[in-house]
Amino acid sequence: MPFVTLxxxxxxxxxxxxxxxxxxxxNMEIVQAxxxxxxxxxxxxxxxxxxGALKYAGIGYITAIVQAAAASSTVPVVLHLDHGTxxxxxxxxxxxxxxxxxxDGSHYSLAENIALTRKVAEVAHAMGxxxxxxxxxxxxxxxxxxxxxxxxxxTDPAEAQQFVAETKVxxxxxxxxxxxxxxxxxxxxxxARLTDINDRVAAPLVLHGAxxxxxDSIRKAVAGGIRKIxxxxxxxxxxxxxxxQIVQEKPAEIDPRKILGPAKExxxxxxxxxxxxxxxxxxx
Length: 284
Prior knowledge:
This protein is α/β, with parallel strands linked by helices. The chain has one domain: Alpha-Beta Barrel (TIM Barrel), CATH 3.20.20.70. The protein contains eleven helices and eleven strands. α2 links the parallel β1 and β2. The chain is globular and about 60 Å long.
């Protein structure tokens, strides 16, 4: 089926009180794993391209692979830019058929972030697409976007209210204690802050850096208003574990399909488990 917008799937998620998984796509096997999982679980899904994915595969390849997968899919699929770094880049993605873009202005002042995000939002909405903004910084590293842990800060609820009102974003990524990349210890989320933000903000809320967050914390975050949850690291871990196992067990194997096939299946199981955890299974 044709791509849908982020606003469409998150509006339904808000009504149903569940979250939709957003999974980073870098190559064909990852895209296939995500789409097959969504089909089997009858779940809406967000496939997103990060800065690293765009540099690795190129915007044309990423778009074409996801379009091919979505064309034969019967569940709602969103093609989303993750952590867009500039107005120009978000425009390129929209021109290539992305139905949603994230503009990450979290490293700017509040006033600059609002002004730049609003500019992207105006064009995205005029093109029938959705936009995600970010307020507060997520610790760790997201491809080319690094934030030292000591400099990471949480989202201010009052600023979140102002930001959404002035930018008209369709979703807001907030910082409440998660981090990009593998965790050094168990993350502790600020649920009181989440409740305060959710009470003030009309836009659906987004949780970045959710790989490795305990299931109980994820369930509590969804109950508290999180409607989009980003997963990347756990897919990479599943992929590399499967590839290493095949190479170790069958060192003479030279068929890429027999190496990458098991890796695809391993990632699919991770995606399905996350969809069940988020509560979006059967919501397609």
